[in-house]
């Protein structure tokens, strides 16, 4: 017989057995992609035994952020001890279950490492400094993802799940439009596109 999960939230001095404790820990930023530091806040949870997908869902709910978990993510969380921060809690799950995650605005995306792939994105419209800035910014947004500059050509090696690669492709696409010769702000328009699991994305297109 499967044992029920036990969660303890010491900060509020509350305890529930057999159910998941759901307590909001504050509103998340509308631009989580630039505020990954929000995961540094305390997250004093102790997990005895609970379904991994439920743990991830409650993690997002307690932080006030949306969570999108790949259908390939599964398993049980057992004996996860209390940690100092939300980031440490999430990384403990990542190490134990071979997960990959990243944050984009107000959404946490979680997948398995087996879903990772590397894609080469040509970015001739971006100089070295711009490519380095993009790679540095996005590589810090999670665990198991990366963007590396190609030393031989103006391209990026993007590693991560499909949703992450699609997101970076959208960013690069926007940069290509705004950097094209003869293209001014009045010649482009911003639209919302939907790409797989990446959610709504703002993209610049020519009028």
UniProtKB/TrEMBL annotation:
Gene3D superfamilies: 3.55.50.30
Protein origin, superkingdom: Bacteria
The protein, known as: Type III secretion protein
Organism (species): Bordetella genomosp. 4
Lineage: Bacteria, Pseudomonadati, Pseudomonadota, Betaproteobacteria, Burkholderiales
């Amino acid at each position: 017989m499967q044992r029920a999960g036990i969660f303890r939230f010491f900060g509020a001095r509350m305890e529930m057995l057999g159910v998941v404790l759901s307590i909001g820990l504050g509103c998340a930023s509308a631009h989580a992609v630039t505020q990954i530091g929000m995961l540094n806040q305390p997250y004093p949870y102790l997990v005895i035994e609970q379904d991994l997908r439920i743990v991830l869902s409650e993690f997002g709910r307690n932080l006030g952020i949306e969570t999108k978990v790949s259908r390939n993510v599964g398993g049980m969380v057992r004996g996860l001890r209390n940690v100092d921060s939300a980031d440490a809690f999430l990384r403990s799950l990542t190490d134990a279950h071979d997960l990959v995650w990243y944050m984009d605005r107000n959404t946490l995306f979680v997948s398995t490492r087996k879903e990772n792939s590397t894609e080469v994105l040509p970015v001739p419209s971006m100089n070295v400094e711009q490519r380095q800035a993009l790679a540095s910014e996005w590589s810090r947004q999670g665990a198991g993802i990366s963007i590396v500059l190609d030393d031989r050509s103006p391209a990026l090696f993007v590693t991560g799940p499909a949703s992450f690669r699609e997101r970076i492709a959208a960013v690069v696409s926007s940069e290509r439009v705004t950097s094209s010769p003869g293209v001014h702000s009045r010649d482009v328009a911003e639209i919302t596109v939907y790409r797989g699991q990446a959610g709504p994305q703002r993209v610049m297109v020519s009028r």
